[in-house]
Amino acid sequence: MTFRHEFVEALTLLATAIDRLKARGYSPPILVGGAAVELYTGGQVTSGDFDFVSADQAEFLSELERVGFERPKRAGWLTRSLWHPRLRFAVQVVSGALMDGNADAARIRIVEVSADQEESDLTLRVIPIEDLIADRMAQALATNVIREDMQNQAVRLYQLAEGLDSDYLDRRIRTETGGEGSLQILSDWAKSCAP
Q1: Number of domains in the chain
Q2: Which of 10, 17, 72, 149 is at a distance of 20 to 30 A from 84, taking alpha carbons?
C-alpha cells in the first residue's frame, strides 16, 4: 500500500491528538468517511478530509488545535471543523455515535499509525469496513439517481476487502439503505465494473 506523504503525516497528527485525548480519560474518536475509504483501499481512492465520530467533540477539537489544526478563517465553515494549512486537510466531527449506534463496536479496526519508528504506538480506531460499505451504498442510493462516486467507493471497498462477514454486510446494507440495497446488489455492481 502506498499512501500520500501528506496523508500519512496528517494521520500521525490525528493519532497524536487522539492519544492525548485518551490520556485525559476521553473515548477515542472513530475515523469514518472518505479518509477511511482511503485507508481501506491503500490510497487507491483519495480524500481531502478526515471525518470522525466522537462523543467528546470540543475536547477532540482542542487537542487537534494543539497539533497544528486551525479554525478556518473563512465564513461558512462549520464550527465542528478544523483545517491544517500546510497539509491542506480538513477535519470534521460528523456525529457522536458510530452509524447512529447501529454498528457493531467489537468490529472497529485498530490501525497503527506512525511517520517514524519513534511513534509506533500511535493508533486510530476506524469504522468497520462492512459499515463503511453500507454507508457508501446508502449514499449512492439516497436519491432517484445513483451517485456514481459513492457507488464506485462501495464497489472498490468490496473488491479490495479481505475477510468480509457477508451476513453482517448484507444486514448493514439493508439497514442503512432502508431495504433498497443488499449484498446481491453490491455484488452485481462489482460484476458490472469488472475489467
Answers
A1: 2
A2: 149
145 and 103 part of one domain: no
DSSP track, 68-97: T-B--SSTT--TTEEEETTTTEEEEEEESS
Which of 71, 91, 126 finishes a domain? 126
Q: What is each CA distance from 114 to 14, 52, 149, in whole angstroms? A: 10, 19, 30
In whole angstroms, give the CA distance from residue 133 to residue 183: 10
The pTM score is 0.92
DSSP 99: G
How far is Cα 144 from Cα 141, in angstroms, rounded to an integer? 7
Residue with cell 480538513: 90
List the grid coordinates of 17.
Answer: 491528538
Domain that holds residue 57: 5-126
